[in-house]
Amino acid sequence: MSQTIDLNDARLSWQGAISLHRTDDGVMPWRVPYESKRLFPPDALLERAAMPAGVRLSFISNTSSLTLDVDVQSEDPQKLDVYADGKLCDSLNATGTRTLRVEDLPTGEKLLELWLPHHGEVRVKSLAIDDGASLSGYDDGRPKWITYGSSISHCRAAESPSTTWPAIAARTLDLNLTCLGYGGNCHLEPMMARMIRDLPADYLSMKVGINVHNSGSMNVRTFRPGIIGFVQILREKHPDTPLAVISPIFSPPRETERNAAEFNLTDMRQEVAQAVDDLKSCGDSNVHYVDGLKLFGTDLGHMLPDDLHPNADGYKLMGANFINEVAKPVFKL
């Protein structure tokens, strides 16, 4: 026997989601405000914003099992990871419309966190726990970390949603993650800066440049001003929040080859570093430049199957390097 939990129950939290689209057919998490999503063009950004990278459905219960009906639309095989009190219980194949069930959960009251598939549209259609089991909300007191980036922060090739590099860093450091990595995007959009500005945050990071290079969306005239403007918008409501500005990781052909805007990655790292220096010189004492090569450097090229995106092991290494190169020195964790 089981009890079905209303997905609108206030005791359920959807950590990492910016908004929820609720219909008679279930709940779909979004990583932009759903009601005003047309203010976040282009459609390619909205496509990625509909993918719940880093989103966890969380609650506290003494249930020994749970059942979840999901509809996951993705070109790739997707998984849903189930954690109890921070420990992985199961990683379930979740692609398509299917019923997922986990049994033999640890006894007693525990925090259950369901890491939703990270690279596909996800609709949670129903949730059930043991008949008579308890249910209470999770008041998450962990520090809030927001990270903004591209496909390299979205982590399509990660083994599962809890093994993207932001997820690894957040789980290791016990942080409440909001992952704003959008494949093919991260062009310093002003509306994205405004959205992050309006969210609570204890730590901020932004990893910028690679898709600006790939698409030629900015040049030497606009890239550094774009970074400065983005940071200044964040500072309107986060004046002293530790902020790491990270330049591109290693990408062999792009290091020296110039794009249509006459930019290569070596140039871009210099521009990101100079933007941070400019901000510091005008009084921002808690903005910090991090060279992307410290997260994923020239010695790791063998982990770039397409010379651009890390593989699953590469993302795990990036998570560890983020902890050592960013979280410890910048966030003081």
What average pLDDT do the residues reach? 97
CATH structural fold name of the largest domain:
Rossmann fold
**Adjacency order of strands in the biggest sheet:** 2-5-10-7-8
Rg calc: 20 Å
Strands, helices and their partners?
Layout: E1 2-5, E2 13-15, E3 19-23, E4 26-30, H1 43-49, E5 56-61, E6 66-73, E7 79-84, E8 87-93, E9 96-102, E10 110-115, E11 121-130, E12 144-149, H2 151-154, H3 165-173, E13 176-181, H4 190-197, E14 203-207, H5 210-215, H6 223-235, E15 243-246, H7 265-281, E16 287-290, H8 312-327
Parallel strand pairs: 12-13, 12-14, 14-15, 15-16
Antiparallel strand pairs: 1-11, 2-5, 3-4, 5-10, 6-9, 6-11, 7-8, 7-10
Helix pairs in contact: 3-8, 4-6, 6-7
Can you tell me about this structure?
A hairpin with a 2-residue loop joins strand 7 and strand 8 (87-93). The mean pLDDT is 97. The protein has two domains: 2-130, Galactose-binding domain-like (Jelly Rolls, Sandwich); 144-327, 3-Layer(aba) Sandwich (Rossmann fold). The longest helix is centred in the last third of the chain and has 17 residues, at 265-281. It has 333 residues and is α/β, with parallel strands linked by helices. The protein has eight helices and 16 strands.
